[in-house]
Fold this sequence. Notes:
By secondary structure, the chain is α/β, with parallel strands linked by helices. It contains 29 helices and 27 strands. The chain has 6 domains: 2-101, MutS, DNA mismatch repair protein, domain I (3-Layer(aba) Sandwich), CATH 3.40.1170.10; 120-253, Nucleotidyltransferase, domain 5 (2-Layer Sandwich), CATH 3.30.420; 284-390 and 528-555, Orthogonal Bundle (MutS, DNA mismatch repair protein, Chain A, domain 3); 421-518, MutS, DNA mismatch repair protein, Chain A, domain 3; 561-772, P-loop containing nucleotide triphosphate hydrolases (Rossmann fold, 3-Layer(aba) Sandwich); 781-856, no CATH class. Strands 13-23-24-25-21-26-27 form a 7-stranded mixed β-sheet, with helices on both faces. The chain has a 6-stranded mixed β-sheet with strand order 3-4-2-1-5-6, sandwiched between helices. A 6-stranded mixed β-sheet has the order 11-10-7-8-9-12, sandwiched between helices. Helix 5 links the parallel strand 10 and strand 11. 37% of the residues are buried. The model is unreliable at 654-659 and 799-820 (pLDDT under 50).
Amino acid sequence: xxxxxxxxxxxxxxxxxxxxxxxxxxxxxxxxxxxxxxxxxxxxxxxxxxxxxxxxxxxxxxxxxxxxxxxxxxxxxxxxxxxxxxxxxxxxxxxxxxxxxxxxxxxxxxxxxxxxxxxxxxxxxxxxxxxxxxxxxxxxxxxxxxxxxxxxxxxxxxxxxxxxxxxxxxxxxxxxxxxxxxxxxxxxxxxxxxxxxxxxxxxxxxxxxxxxxxxxxxxxxxxxxxxxxxxxxxxxxxxxxxxxxxxxxxxxxxxxxxxxxxxxxxxxxxxxxxxxxxxxxxxxxxxxxxxxxxxxxxxxxxxxxxxxxxxxxxxxxxxxxxxxxxxxxxxxxxxxxxxxxxxxxxxxxxxxxxxxxxxxxxxxxxxxxxxxxxxxxxxxxxxxxxxxxxxxxxxxxxxxxxxxxxxxxxxxxxxxxxxxxxxxxxxxxxxxxxxxxxxxxxxxxxxxxxxxxxxxxxxxxxxxxxxxxxxxxxxxxxxxxxxxxxxxxxxxxxxxxxxxxxxxxxxxxxxxxxxxxxxxxxxxxxxxxxxxxxxxxxxxxxxxxxxxxxxxxxxxxxxxxxxxxxxxxxxxxxxxxxxxxxxxxxxxxxxxxxxxxxxxxxxxxxxxxxxxxxxxxxxxxxxxxxxxxxxxxxxxxxxxxxxxxxxxxxxxxxxxxxxxxxxxxxxxxxxxxxxxxxxxxxxxxxxxxxxxxxxxxxxxxxxxxxxxxxxxxxxxxxxxxxxxxxxxxxxxxxxxxxxxxxxxxxxxxxxxxxxxxxxxxxxxxxxxxxxxxxxxxxxxxxxxxxxxxxxxxxxxxxxxxxxxxxxxxxxxxxxxxxxxxxxxxxxxxxxxxxxxxxxxxxxxxxxxxxxxxxxxxxxx
Length: 860
């Protein structure tokens, strides 16, 4: 326990898994936590002179089952192993931490999500600026950036790190700037100094400066990046050969999507249960690394037209050459997660089965390289040039590793025959043993005349000869008796002991020799890490483009034209997610949208609830975003003058935990938009101002639209869906504001939603119809219609002056007529009486009805 506490003191905030023989044990507070999270038994044991200490443990071979549960519960886990063979020491076995696993630092397959990156982030910030770094230790991707707090916040929401590091003592500042939803860990102040960070990065990359990575001017980014490597030292992750470069995320290359937009457009997470994200709809990738890259593309849409068109051209090529598309897809299926497998080589954690997978992946690269090289498409030809099948090491793997090795090296049968003469001889000795023993058994049986004699093995005293009691008088004198059973005796002989030492020695030597040969192969593989990582990047890119082609074919998407104009023109656009969730047989109603800076900069869309205003806003943004990640779009045609920022203010959401009302959240989001406008921004405003009183809301909405329209430097393209029909008046005063409405059709007393966008404003909201469709009690619906009539009459009489007064003057409650009382209970009674068929009512039915009315009124 003294040894345990000395190790625990080094990592007081982690659960310590302490290896004792065949078990990992936890003690004290750790045991209480572990037992609760893992559902294992909590016991107590005597702790020397002290009282008792809590204890909970599990078998060492179950680590892969239990470790992920602890990490997913947000725990840091320190794994303490026995560092020497217990047979070789008479004292307490030497132990030490071999790995500290945290939510952001893990290479365990059971903890990692295969189709998602497992990023560890580090943030360094002061009063005005911040830097951020992202590292996925399981793939070797290392990225950095710096900029305003809004920009870093956007990146954190795009990359969704599993753990975020920052400077100790800055917890409140971090939450104020970036929110409290991240799992965080703090590091000492000195780690976030430029000298310490630069020194750590230069030591890792073995370079004289950071100029080769293009990050030397990102002072905050460098400090954040250096801190990550320092954290890997702390967590005992020292084999980092696969982290071979540091890439800069260049702000001016990608479209700005703030956290509100990422949430409101449901790119990666859904607001409503049962919905789908854009990433889920577009992800038809075959490999996990392709899926991870696709999410990055969605988070970082391109602004560079040539790069966008390169992607679009490849998608178009695959759609025109389906046999090639299928043949390449088939090969990518053989490749699997090349990126993570090669990272395991660097950290020395690759098992024999994964080496076979790596071998298959490299074998599949050859045909892909050939097919891309023959393609009549420049981008694909360039990809072919980048692929390297690494033939030398692949042939060595084929030559040395068996076709179907076990997962664990110590199980043997990993190295092929013919690789080592010594190994082949030892195997012959070990595996020809059965024949030798059979011959020996037959020989001794004949010599002694004991027909039932048999030779067997157990762990207590090795090989033995068993003789039934009926024949024990025939046993030769030189045999040594070892065990007496009820009906038999067991003996050993000199020959058996000699043979046993040979066999057991051979088995140990075989395992040691296989381990040595295997490790030599892994060391040789490490030389190819960068080449294979480049292959993985090319294959992931190819996988994403094939995925776009599959989506385009399945969902009838078309190629958009992305240009440098400032006009967005979408013909028959559809919402990519909603159209896939419609009931069978129902088709999505498409719509045209046109925005520019001369004629139609701001579109105000009115129309009833449920008519499709919100869907129209979102689909416009999603079509633009899809075009700029290089995907075909759900529209008959689309001309997109590229955008540099997409802003959304959609729907109502309280942030009660931070004490913010719906209206406060709404105003925060709107302020973020107005403070970051640019000439190429696309803005979507849905029901802005709804969180406050009608007149406040109309005033704020009007002034925001006016600000966007009249801004001296920018003419941001804007779609504004609203219930405030008063905003339709803006078209008369502001030249680039245009009114549209989403159409409905009234048939009798019903409303049919046509979901078609047409020119002109709407002056009726049909909210009461929606209430009726939702199953609101008839009395409430009827009363709402009456109040609406009174309000409209008051508005016509007094303008917008006193609608509420008008309502009060006309309140039914001031007239004591039983059939016009506005009490909901009395209204329900009135409805019950009104619907009675008195002429056909029996006395018993009348009594039952009267009793029902009595219950409604609450009388006893």
